[in-house]
Structures are given as structure tokens and as C-alpha cells.
Design goal:
Helix content is 87%, strand content 0%. It is built from 4 helices and no strands.
């Protein structure tokens, strides 16, 4: 009787642990990472060496995450996609920074030319 109760309790514990351990595929995070990488490419991240490095890392991590999802390793896939999103977003910031620096330089030059002309 004791052995049967012990086995029943063990069976319930294993079942609960197995159900609790399941992590659903991080499809939302995958979509977000892909969108961020696509935005980085569209903004011209491939033209800036620093941004290109980070968008390349994001692309590679997205591929790794897809493989992990295929292997049902969704927890690692989720963490990999978090890194991919961060790298893609960093690439976007680097491109925007470069664009802002160029605009500021043009504005300074225009102001200097206008001041010299007066």
C-alpha cells in the first residue's frame, strides 16, 4: 500500500514537472528580432562597419534560434532571440547616430559658410 502511494505520488510529481518544464516556441520574439534586423538592413546598417557587425550577429542568432526551435530547445531559442534583438537594435542606433553626425556636420558647415559670407 505504501509503495503504491509512493509510486502514485512520484508519477504525479513527474507529470507536473514535465508540464511545467515545457516552454512554448518564442514566435513573438522571433518576429520582433526579424523585424528589427530587417529595419537595420533597410536603414543601411550594411554600409557602416560597426552596424554591419551587429546586424550580421543578429542574422546569425536568428538562424541559430530557428534551429533551436526546430529541436524544441525553446528556452535557449528565446535567450538567443533576445540577443539577436539587442544586436539588431544596436545596429539601428549606430546607423541613426552616423546619420545624425553627418547632418550636424552639414549644419555646422552651413552655419560657418553663412557667418563667413556676412
Amino acid at each position: 500500500m505504501l509503495l503504491r502511494n509512493l509510486l502514485a505520488a512520484l508519477g504525479v510529481s513527474v507529470t507536473v514537472a514535465a508540464c511545467g518544464a515545457h516552454v512554448p516556441p518564442p514566435t513573438d520574439r522571433l518576429a520582433g528580432a526579424e523585424a528589427a534586423a530587417r529595419s537595420a538592413h533597410e536603414l543601411g546598417a550594411d554600409q557602416d562597419p560597426n552596424a554591419a557587425l551587429h546586424v550580421k550577429l543578429a542574422d546569425e542568432q536568428i538562424g541559430q534560434a530557428k534551429n533551436l526551435m526546430h529541436d524544441n530547445d525553446n528556452q535557449r531559442a528565446d535567450r538567443t532571440l533576445q540577443r539577436a534583438s539587442a544586436d539588431a537594435e544596436l545596429a539601428i542606433v549606430l546607423v541613426k547616430e552616423k546619420t545624425a553626425e553627418a547632418a550636424a556636420s552639414k549644419a555646422k558647415e552651413a552655419a560657418a559658410n553663412q557667418k563667413a559670407g556676412k
